[in-house]
Amino acid sequence: MNEILLQLAKCVEAGKINRISPYPPGMKDQDGADEITRKALELNYKPDEILEGALIPAMSVVGNRFSRKEIFVPQMLMSAKAMSAAMVHLKPFFQSGETKRRGTFIIGTVTGDLHDIGKNLVAMMVEGGGWEVIDLGVDVSSEKFIKAIDERPHAVVGLSALLTTTMENMRKITSDIKAKYSTTTVLVGGAPVTQDYCTKIGADFYSPDPQGAVNYLNTHRG
Ligand code: B1M
Q1: 113 alpha carbon – ligand 1 mean position (Å)
Q2: 11, 29, 12: which is closest to 20 by C-alpha?
Q3: Which of 90, 104, 97 is nearest to 46 (CA)?
Q4: What's domain 102-222's superfamily in CATH?
Q5: 133-192, pLDDT tens digit by residue?
Q6: CATH tag for 1-100 (out of 1.25.40.10, 1.10.1240.10, 1.10.8.60, 3.40.228.10)
Q7: Which of 58, 89, 140, 190 meets the CB 3.0–4.6 Å disulfide criterion with 161?
Q8: Closest residue to atom 43 of ligand 1, CA basis
Protein backbone atom coordinates (compact mmCIF):
# COMPACT_ATOMS: atom_id res chain seq x y z
CA MET A 1 0.00 0.00 0.00
CA ASN A 2 1.13 3.54 -0.72
CA GLU A 3 2.85 5.38 2.17
CA ILE A 4 0.21 8.06 2.81
CA LEU A 5 -2.66 5.55 2.64
CA LEU A 6 -0.73 3.28 4.98
CA GLN A 7 -0.29 6.17 7.41
CA LEU A 8 -4.02 6.94 7.23
CA ALA A 9 -4.98 3.30 7.78
CA LYS A 10 -2.66 3.21 10.80
CA CYS A 11 -4.38 6.30 12.27
CA VAL A 12 -7.83 4.76 11.88
CA GLU A 13 -6.74 1.42 13.35
CA ALA A 14 -5.14 3.23 16.31
CA GLY A 15 -7.97 5.74 16.76
CA LYS A 16 -5.79 8.80 16.08
CA ILE A 17 -8.34 11.49 15.13
CA ASN A 18 -6.19 14.58 14.59
CA ARG A 19 -2.92 16.17 15.64
CA ILE A 20 -4.28 17.67 18.89
CA SER A 21 -5.90 14.43 19.99
CA PRO A 22 -3.98 12.97 22.96
CA TYR A 23 -5.08 9.41 22.04
CA PRO A 24 -3.31 7.06 21.60
CA PRO A 25 -0.47 8.27 23.84
CA GLY A 26 2.13 6.67 21.54
CA MET A 27 1.04 8.94 18.64
CA LYS A 28 1.03 12.28 20.53
CA ASP A 29 1.90 15.34 18.35
CA GLN A 30 1.59 13.32 15.14
CA ASP A 31 -0.87 14.07 12.35
CA GLY A 32 -4.13 12.13 12.58
CA ALA A 33 -6.80 10.92 10.14
CA ASP A 34 -8.03 14.51 9.73
CA GLU A 35 -4.74 16.03 8.54
CA ILE A 36 -3.61 13.00 6.53
CA THR A 37 -6.88 12.79 4.58
CA ARG A 38 -6.62 16.50 3.76
CA LYS A 39 -3.02 15.97 2.64
CA ALA A 40 -3.98 12.98 0.47
CA LEU A 41 -6.67 15.03 -1.29
CA GLU A 42 -4.17 17.87 -1.85
CA LEU A 43 -1.87 15.29 -3.42
CA ASN A 44 -4.75 14.42 -5.79
CA TYR A 45 -5.62 11.03 -4.38
CA LYS A 46 -9.19 10.23 -5.41
CA PRO A 47 -11.78 10.06 -2.59
CA ASP A 48 -12.71 6.46 -3.47
CA GLU A 49 -9.02 5.51 -3.48
CA ILE A 50 -8.72 6.93 0.06
CA LEU A 51 -11.91 5.18 1.16
CA GLU A 52 -11.25 1.79 -0.47
CA GLY A 53 -7.47 1.82 -0.02
CA ALA A 54 -7.20 3.01 3.58
CA LEU A 55 -10.39 3.67 5.53
CA ILE A 56 -12.41 0.55 4.66
CA PRO A 57 -9.53 -1.94 5.17
CA ALA A 58 -8.60 -0.22 8.46
CA MET A 59 -12.18 -0.33 9.77
CA SER A 60 -12.39 -3.95 8.74
CA VAL A 61 -9.27 -4.73 10.81
CA VAL A 62 -10.84 -2.86 13.75
CA GLY A 63 -14.18 -4.66 13.37
CA ASN A 64 -12.52 -8.06 13.26
CA ARG A 65 -10.40 -7.27 16.33
CA PHE A 66 -13.60 -6.25 18.15
CA SER A 67 -15.38 -9.45 17.07
CA ARG A 68 -12.41 -11.48 18.39
CA LYS A 69 -12.57 -9.46 21.65
CA GLU A 70 -8.99 -8.21 21.15
CA ILE A 71 -10.26 -4.63 21.54
CA PHE A 72 -13.35 -3.20 23.25
CA VAL A 73 -16.00 -0.50 22.76
CA PRO A 74 -13.79 2.51 23.71
CA GLN A 75 -11.07 1.55 21.20
CA MET A 76 -13.61 0.85 18.48
CA LEU A 77 -15.27 4.23 19.18
CA MET A 78 -11.92 6.04 18.80
CA SER A 79 -11.33 4.29 15.47
CA ALA A 80 -14.83 5.18 14.31
CA LYS A 81 -14.19 8.81 15.33
CA ALA A 82 -10.92 8.85 13.39
CA MET A 83 -12.76 7.47 10.38
CA SER A 84 -15.45 10.13 10.77
CA ALA A 85 -12.76 12.85 10.84
CA ALA A 86 -11.51 11.53 7.50
CA MET A 87 -15.03 11.24 6.10
CA VAL A 88 -15.68 14.96 6.76
CA HIS A 89 -13.24 15.68 3.90
CA LEU A 90 -14.58 12.94 1.61
CA LYS A 91 -18.33 13.50 2.10
CA PRO A 92 -18.63 16.51 -0.26
CA PHE A 93 -17.33 14.30 -3.11
CA PHE A 94 -19.78 11.50 -2.30
CA GLN A 95 -22.68 13.93 -1.87
CA SER A 96 -21.97 15.53 -5.24
CA GLY A 97 -22.29 12.08 -6.82
CA GLU A 98 -18.72 12.33 -8.12
CA THR A 99 -17.80 9.18 -6.17
CA LYS A 100 -20.05 6.14 -5.73
CA ARG A 101 -21.03 4.37 -2.49
CA ARG A 102 -21.77 0.64 -2.24
CA GLY A 103 -25.41 1.28 -1.35
CA THR A 104 -27.63 2.92 1.25
CA PHE A 105 -28.22 1.62 4.75
CA ILE A 106 -31.08 3.03 6.84
CA ILE A 107 -30.65 2.40 10.56
CA GLY A 108 -32.54 3.24 13.74
CA THR A 109 -33.26 2.05 17.27
CA VAL A 110 -36.83 0.74 17.39
CA THR A 111 -39.94 2.34 18.93
CA GLY A 112 -39.72 2.93 22.67
CA ASP A 113 -35.96 2.34 22.86
CA LEU A 114 -33.53 5.17 23.58
CA HIS A 115 -30.26 3.20 23.60
CA ASP A 116 -28.06 4.41 20.78
CA ILE A 117 -24.43 3.60 21.55
CA GLY A 118 -24.46 0.23 19.77
CA LYS A 119 -26.60 1.57 16.92
CA ASN A 120 -24.17 4.46 16.41
CA LEU A 121 -21.25 2.03 16.29
CA VAL A 122 -23.00 -0.07 13.66
CA ALA A 123 -23.79 3.10 11.66
CA MET A 124 -20.16 4.24 11.81
CA MET A 125 -18.77 0.84 10.88
CA VAL A 126 -21.17 0.45 7.96
CA GLU A 127 -20.22 3.93 6.77
CA GLY A 128 -16.60 2.85 7.13
CA GLY A 129 -17.52 -0.15 4.98
CA GLY A 130 -18.29 2.21 2.09
CA TRP A 131 -22.05 2.66 2.48
CA GLU A 132 -24.18 5.79 2.64
CA VAL A 133 -25.87 5.69 6.06
CA ILE A 134 -29.19 7.34 6.91
CA ASP A 135 -29.37 7.31 10.70
CA LEU A 136 -32.97 7.84 11.86
CA GLY A 137 -31.93 8.00 15.53
CA VAL A 138 -33.78 6.41 18.45
CA ASP A 139 -37.44 5.55 19.14
CA VAL A 140 -38.06 5.04 15.43
CA SER A 141 -41.54 3.88 14.37
CA SER A 142 -42.56 1.75 11.37
CA GLU A 143 -43.92 4.89 9.72
CA LYS A 144 -40.58 6.66 10.00
CA PHE A 145 -38.67 3.65 8.62
CA ILE A 146 -41.15 3.32 5.74
CA LYS A 147 -40.96 7.05 4.92
CA ALA A 148 -37.17 6.71 4.67
CA ILE A 149 -37.50 3.61 2.44
CA ASP A 150 -40.03 5.49 0.25
CA GLU A 151 -37.25 7.98 -0.44
CA ARG A 152 -34.60 5.26 -1.09
CA PRO A 153 -36.40 2.07 -2.16
CA HIS A 154 -33.18 0.12 -2.73
CA ALA A 155 -31.82 0.72 0.76
CA VAL A 156 -31.08 -2.04 3.26
CA VAL A 157 -32.61 -1.47 6.71
CA GLY A 158 -31.03 -2.08 10.13
CA LEU A 159 -33.01 -2.30 13.38
CA SER A 160 -31.39 -2.10 16.81
CA ALA A 161 -33.00 -2.87 20.20
CA LEU A 162 -31.51 -3.14 23.69
CA LEU A 163 -34.55 -3.98 25.82
CA THR A 164 -36.42 -7.25 25.90
CA THR A 165 -39.62 -5.16 25.84
CA THR A 166 -38.75 -2.98 22.82
CA MET A 167 -37.25 -5.95 20.98
CA GLU A 168 -40.87 -7.02 20.38
CA ASN A 169 -41.36 -3.82 18.33
CA MET A 170 -38.83 -5.23 15.84
CA ARG A 171 -41.44 -7.81 14.88
CA LYS A 172 -44.04 -5.18 13.99
CA ILE A 173 -41.54 -2.93 12.20
CA THR A 174 -40.15 -5.84 10.17
CA SER A 175 -43.61 -7.01 9.19
CA ASP A 176 -44.79 -3.45 8.33
CA ILE A 177 -41.71 -2.94 6.16
CA LYS A 178 -42.12 -6.31 4.43
CA ALA A 179 -45.86 -5.64 3.85
CA LYS A 180 -45.01 -2.58 1.77
CA TYR A 181 -41.54 -3.54 0.49
CA SER A 182 -41.37 -7.35 0.34
CA THR A 183 -37.85 -7.35 -1.15
CA THR A 184 -36.29 -4.93 1.34
CA THR A 185 -33.55 -6.62 3.36
CA VAL A 186 -33.90 -6.14 7.12
CA LEU A 187 -30.94 -6.67 9.47
CA VAL A 188 -31.45 -6.90 13.23
CA GLY A 189 -29.12 -6.66 16.21
CA GLY A 190 -28.74 -5.56 19.82
CA ALA A 191 -27.92 -7.31 23.09
CA PRO A 192 -31.19 -9.28 23.58
CA VAL A 193 -31.61 -10.22 19.90
CA THR A 194 -30.74 -13.74 18.72
CA GLN A 195 -30.60 -15.64 15.43
CA ASP A 196 -33.67 -17.58 16.54
CA TYR A 197 -35.61 -14.34 17.13
CA CYS A 198 -34.48 -12.95 13.80
CA THR A 199 -35.82 -16.03 12.03
CA LYS A 200 -39.09 -15.94 13.98
CA ILE A 201 -39.90 -12.34 13.06
CA GLY A 202 -39.02 -12.79 9.39
CA ALA A 203 -35.96 -10.53 9.35
CA ASP A 204 -33.21 -11.40 6.88
CA PHE A 205 -30.03 -11.33 8.93
CA TYR A 206 -28.88 -11.15 12.54
CA SER A 207 -25.44 -9.99 13.59
CA PRO A 208 -24.19 -9.83 17.16
CA ASP A 209 -21.69 -7.12 16.24
CA PRO A 210 -21.09 -4.31 13.72
CA GLN A 211 -18.51 -6.18 11.63
CA GLY A 212 -20.95 -9.02 10.98
CA ALA A 213 -23.39 -6.46 9.56
CA VAL A 214 -20.64 -4.93 7.38
CA ASN A 215 -19.53 -8.34 6.11
CA TYR A 216 -23.10 -9.31 5.27
CA LEU A 217 -23.76 -6.05 3.44
CA ASN A 218 -20.56 -6.20 1.44
CA THR A 219 -20.94 -9.89 0.59
CA HIS A 220 -24.63 -9.96 -0.22
CA ARG A 221 -25.41 -6.44 -1.33
CA GLY A 222 -22.27 -4.45 -2.04
CO1 B1M B 1 -30.32 0.90 29.71
N2 B1M B 1 -30.71 -1.01 30.00
N3 B1M B 1 -32.11 1.35 30.27
N4 B1M B 1 -29.72 2.74 29.55
N5 B1M B 1 -28.51 0.21 29.55
C6 B1M B 1 -29.60 -1.97 29.62
C7 B1M B 1 -29.77 -2.41 28.17
C8 B1M B 1 -29.86 -3.14 30.67
C9 B1M B 1 -29.37 -4.51 30.20
C10 B1M B 1 -29.25 -2.74 32.04
C11 B1M B 1 -29.54 -3.77 33.12
O12 B1M B 1 -30.59 -3.80 33.69
N13 B1M B 1 -28.59 -4.64 33.41
C14 B1M B 1 -31.42 -3.06 30.84
C15 B1M B 1 -32.24 -3.90 29.88
C16 B1M B 1 -32.88 -5.11 30.54
C17 B1M B 1 -33.64 -5.88 29.55
O18 B1M B 1 -34.49 -5.41 28.85
N19 B1M B 1 -33.33 -7.15 29.51
C20 B1M B 1 -31.66 -1.56 30.68
C21 B1M B 1 -32.79 -0.87 31.17
C22 B1M B 1 -33.76 -1.68 31.99
C23 B1M B 1 -33.01 0.50 30.93
C24 B1M B 1 -34.18 1.36 31.39
C25 B1M B 1 -35.57 0.71 31.29
C26 B1M B 1 -33.86 1.79 32.84
C27 B1M B 1 -34.97 2.57 33.51
O28 B1M B 1 -35.23 3.69 33.15
N29 B1M B 1 -35.61 1.92 34.45
C30 B1M B 1 -34.08 2.60 30.49
C31 B1M B 1 -34.87 2.45 29.20
C32 B1M B 1 -34.87 3.69 28.36
C33 B1M B 1 -35.45 3.40 27.00
O34 B1M B 1 -34.73 2.96 26.13
N35 B1M B 1 -36.73 3.63 26.84
C36 B1M B 1 -32.60 2.60 30.20
C37 B1M B 1 -31.87 3.76 29.92
C38 B1M B 1 -30.52 3.81 29.69
C39 B1M B 1 -29.71 5.09 29.54
C40 B1M B 1 -30.48 6.21 28.82
C41 B1M B 1 -29.35 5.56 30.93
C42 B1M B 1 -28.40 4.58 28.81
C43 B1M B 1 -28.48 4.67 27.28
C44 B1M B 1 -27.65 5.82 26.76
C45 B1M B 1 -27.54 5.74 25.26
O46 B1M B 1 -27.60 4.70 24.63
N47 B1M B 1 -27.37 6.92 24.71
C48 B1M B 1 -28.43 3.10 29.18
C49 B1M B 1 -27.31 2.25 29.10
C50 B1M B 1 -25.98 2.93 28.75
C51 B1M B 1 -27.37 0.86 29.33
C52 B1M B 1 -26.22 -0.16 29.39
C53 B1M B 1 -25.49 0.12 30.71
C54 B1M B 1 -25.20 -0.13 28.26
C55 B1M B 1 -25.81 -0.27 26.87
C56 B1M B 1 -24.73 -0.02 25.85
O57 B1M B 1 -24.60 1.08 25.32
N58 B1M B 1 -23.86 -1.02 25.64
C59 B1M B 1 -26.99 -1.54 29.38
C60 B1M B 1 -26.35 -2.58 30.29
C61 B1M B 1 -25.20 -3.27 29.63
O62 B1M B 1 -25.25 -3.58 28.45
N63 B1M B 1 -24.18 -3.50 30.39
C64 B1M B 1 -28.39 -1.13 29.64
C65 B1M B 1 -22.68 -0.89 24.74
C66 B1M B 1 -23.10 -1.08 23.28
C67 B1M B 1 -21.87 -0.92 22.39
O68 B1M B 1 -23.58 -2.40 23.14
O69 B1M B 1 -25.88 -1.61 22.44
O70 B1M B 1 -25.40 -4.09 22.85
P71 B1M B 1 -24.95 -2.76 22.39
O72 B1M B 1 -24.51 -2.86 20.87
C73 B1M B 1 -23.62 -3.86 20.44
C74 B1M B 1 -24.31 -5.11 19.88
O75 B1M B 1 -25.52 -5.41 20.52
C76 B1M B 1 -24.42 -4.82 18.42
O77 B1M B 1 -23.32 -3.99 18.11
C78 B1M B 1 -22.89 -3.26 19.26
C79 B1M B 1 -21.40 -3.40 19.38
O80 B1M B 1 -21.05 -4.74 19.54
N81 B1M B 1 -25.61 -4.19 17.86
C82 B1M B 1 -25.99 -4.46 16.59
C83 B1M B 1 -26.43 -3.26 18.36
N84 B1M B 1 -27.34 -2.91 17.47
C85 B1M B 1 -27.11 -3.63 16.35
C86 B1M B 1 -27.74 -3.65 15.10
C87 B1M B 1 -27.23 -4.51 14.11
C88 B1M B 1 -26.14 -5.32 14.37
C89 B1M B 1 -25.49 -5.32 15.60
O90 B1M B 1 -27.76 -4.61 12.88
C91 B1M B 1 -28.76 -3.71 12.49
Answers
A1: 9
A2: 29
A3: 90
A4: Cobalamin-binding domain (3.40.50.280)
A5: 999 999 999 999 999 999 999 999 999 999 999 999 999 999 999 999 999 999 999 999
A6: 1.10.1240.10
A7: 190
A8: 115
